Amino acid sequence: MMHAPNPSRRLLRLFSPALLLLGLGGTAAGAGTAPDDAERYAAARERLVDGIQRDVAATADYLGTDQLDAAVIAAMRSVPREAFVPPALKSQAYRDSPLPIGQGQTISQPYIVAVMSHLAGVDAGDRVYELGTGSGYQAAVLGAMGVEVYSVEIVPELAERAAETLKALGYDQVHVRAGDGYLGWPEAAPFDAVVVTAAHPKIPQPLIEQLKVGGRLVMPVGGIGEIQQLTVLTKQADGRLEEQALLPVRFVPITGDSAR
Length: 260
Prior knowledge:
single chain; Rossmann fold; two-stranded antiparallel ribbon; 21% strand
């Protein structure tokens, strides 16, 4: 078994507040990428995913597993993160860290995107709701897993740009709209899983109602300025949620009138 570095130091690096904010991606970049650039990005993507797998093994005591689902790994290897960052930052696209992408937001740390995708516990053909489209990167990873994604972003400009990026890259199974994500997407429910990319002290009741029995809701639970807990909640037959807190994280809060 590989000897892991000091756990507290690793957690500080992995779950630093700066690494866990979700934001808006840049415009699509895949179509105009030169062959040499495409090869360089692909190699960098492979190195990133290898690093994520090592970090998952090192944090197995928190996650309850030392490896990601094979579909998550394949998706992380296929989604071009460089397409979700501003052109000036493409050279940094495969750092396992967030990057600023405008509107005071960042694109999420790939480790967290991979972990949340794994924790959702979905299979190809499943239907997933995402609160907070941000850059569209998390939705793209789920889409690459063969999942039908319904994602809501509260900032109209961000929703439009994320939708354009996803469409340009061919993620036709990802549906994006602007609105109050706290309310879910009732006409597309019920969902096999719900992924919430912003924190709140309480689980949004509309999302519980729109989750199938046996489905999972993955969400950072906690208040503003607090270290939240990345939590997996499984819906029981009587409507209760079986809750498991896994990782200390810090996300931006859910916004909008419904979250107040």
